[in-house]
């Protein structure tokens, strides 16, 4: 948003009612435009037409396309997602990995998150919003690792963000770099490799 740079950061609590409806309409229009045209083809005029929000309001509140994409990421970061709690670290890591695969391969729903990631390669403001989104996601995974430490499945000082990056990295490599197929077996492989690394203390970043 143009008025306050922090307003595009995920996790910020905002009022409901008309403001929430406006933001949701803008987000949906931004995602539709990214899927249809990609970041280079997204315009404020497109968002205005498809959201019902006048373009002068869009410029005033979000400043342009960069701000609109950052807003879409910010709103995504305000969801109610919580990390899995299966009772074991193995189960939690597998559930995380399967969630990533499902998000980026499910027909009809994968296009929008994929388009947001693509936009972050073309806009520094969108990239910062994406980093903020993931920082907040990593923080939500803190209890997952805390439970694993309590059960003796992970050494004290294991960093939740490092663990989530480890389980996600091979999946994103296949999805966005090598364009190899990903499925449940690949997700389980990523989880098992991360589980072994955690047990070996590879992701301990603070003193226990």
From TrEMBL:
Pfam name, any one: TetR_C_11
Biased composition (Low complexity): 10-21
SUPFAM superfamilies: Homeodomain-like, Tetracyclin repressor-like, C-terminal domain
Organism: Streptomyces hesseae
Domain of life: Bacteria
Key words of the record: DNA-binding, Transcription, Transcription regulation
DNA-binding region: 43-62
Record-given protein name: TetR/AcrR family transcriptional regulator C-terminal ligand-binding domain-containing protein
Stretches the record annotates as Disordered: 1-21
Domain HTH tetR-type: 20-80
């Amino acid at each position: 948003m143009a008025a306050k740079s922090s307003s595009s950061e995920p996790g910020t609590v905002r009022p409901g009612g008309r403001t929430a409806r406006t933001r949701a309409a803008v987000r949906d229009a931004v995602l539709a435009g990214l899927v249809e045209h990609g970041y280079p083809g997204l315009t404020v005029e497109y968002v205005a037409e498809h959201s019902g929000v006048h373009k002068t309001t869009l410029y005033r509140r979000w400043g342009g396309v960069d701000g609109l994409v950052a807003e879409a990421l910010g709103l995504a970061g305000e969801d109610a997602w919580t990390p899995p709690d299966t009772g074991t670290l193995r189960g939690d890591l597998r559930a995380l990995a399967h969630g990533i695969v499902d998000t980026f391969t499910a027909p009809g729903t994968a296009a929008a998150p994929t388009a947001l990631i693509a936009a972050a390669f073309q806009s520094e403001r969108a990239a910062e919003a994406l980093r903020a989104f993931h920082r907040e996601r990593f923080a939500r995974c803190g209890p997952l690792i805390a439970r694993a430490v309590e059960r003796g499945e992970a050494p004290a000082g294991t960093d939740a963000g490092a663990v989530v990056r480890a389980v996600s990295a091979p999946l994103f490599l296949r999805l966005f770099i090598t364009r190899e197929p990903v499925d449940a077996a690949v997700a389980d492989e990523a989880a098992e490799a991360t589980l072994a690394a955690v047990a070996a203390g590879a992701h301990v970043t603070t003193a226990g």
